[in-house]
Amino acid sequence: MSPTLRWLAVGGVVAGLGWSTALPADTPATITLGYLGMERPDDREPLSVLDPVLDDEGLQGARLGISDNNATAQFLDQEFVLHEAEVSQGGDVGEALQGLIDQGADWIVSGLSAEALLEVMAHPALGDRVVFNAGAPDDVLRGESCHPNLYHTTPSRRMLADALAQFLGYKQWERWALVYGNTDEDRILAEALKAAAERYGHRVVEERMWPHDPMARRAEGGFHAIQREIPVFVQDLPEHDVLLIADETDYFGEYFPYQTSAPRPVVGTQGLIATAWHRAHESWGAVQLQRRFEKLADRWMTPRDFAAWLAVRSLGESTARTGSVARDEVLDYMLGEEFELAGYLGLPVSYRTWNHQLRQPILVTGPRMVASVSPQEGYLHPRTPLDSLGADEGESPCRF
């Protein structure tokens, strides 16, 4: 072959290689999610200056879930995309939902309250799209107001109450004195705690409502007022093992430890608490999730972040296992017996078929250390010990 022909042949091969490498790859199957949140109320400033003001709670968990999903999806010709919408206090939830749908969102992760979430479920634009509840603990959403397209990755109040009740039963702290706040949320939580006491053989020896408006941060000398008020408020309570606080909005409960007239542990929403996630949790590989989240968000992961992460990861796990992004195939797998998601809680998490609540272990923690994890040893269930937390199938009013 002459030098000229040899050059042309080599050049043709190179050109051919260059052309072939420039061919577009197969377009990945896209799973588009929308995160729908709401602005933090102006009156919900943290009680302690040690607690950061969070304006992205829940959203950052969804973002991390997208990142974790795509780490695997890239090898399966899949891609996860997240669009975000935040509703102002008193804003139009339906308009925000419509905006996400216009951007192609086929799955919705909600960080909304129960009232706003019910608006979303009733909105005609939602169609047959699935909504993951990552923010509202209300049992009614798993009961009378349940919906076949609504899934819950945040635990219900009843699940949290049962988790705490099991630990108190393990400790044989069976007499509870209950103090609850004057908000609707606190009254509902108090009812859930009393139901847990009845379920596990505890006794609420007395209950009292904290009568004051939300405490403002005390000026100099305020500590002396607290030291006078709280001992008087609880001084004539019947004999009890623990002082149980129901204060979801963190208005007054943090003042009770070390201020009671009798030396009793403070448990409930302050002191020793039951929670889906905690910054001190590091067992079962949880430290890896904690570090990934801190790198992304530059802060600790909260229970709401964890719930949003679980929602996004549920889709990632289901699409990866089925090799499909089709809605019905994904949901069939997600509700099937084979579905198990590693939630860094010691046991795999999965969805209950009768109300779509994610069954999950619950951490029992102090301010800086995990004390235990429920379900506790000895609390059995014919299906799984995880179903000893929250409303069981036979007692659930949810009917799809």
Structural notes for this entry:
With 400 residues, this protein is α/β, with parallel strands linked by helices. Helices cover 34% and strands 17% of the residues. A seven-stranded mixed sheet has the order 7-6-8-9-10-13-14, with helices on one face. The radius of gyration is 25 Å and the shape is globular. Residues 59-208 form the Leucine-binding protein domain. This is ABC transporter substrate-binding protein. Residues 390-400 have a biased composition (Acidic residues).
Head-to-tail CA distance between termini: 78 Å
Q: Which structural class should the secondary elements be placed in?
A: alpha/beta
Q: Helix segment count?
A: 10
Strand element count: 14
Average pLDDT figure? 91
Overall spatial form? globular
CA radius of gyration: 25 Å
Pfam families: Peripla_BP_6
InterPro entries: ABC_transptr_sub-bd_PQQ, BCAA_transport, Leu-bd, Peripla_BP_I
Protein name: ABC transporter substrate-binding protein
Family: Belongs to the leucine-binding protein family.
Question: How would you summarize the topology of this molecule?
Answer:
Layout: H1 3-21, E1 29-38, H2 59-73, E2 78-87, H3 93-102, E3 107-110, H4 114-122, E4 130-133, E5 150-152, H5 157-170, E6 175-180, H6 184-199, E7 203-209, H7 222-234, E8 242-246, E9 266-268, E10 272-275, H8 286-297, H9 303-322, H10 327-334, E11 350-351, E12 358-359, E13 362-365, E14 370-374
Short description:
It comes from Halomonas kalidii. The protein has 400 residues and is α/β, with parallel strands linked by helices. The chain has ten helices and 14 strands.
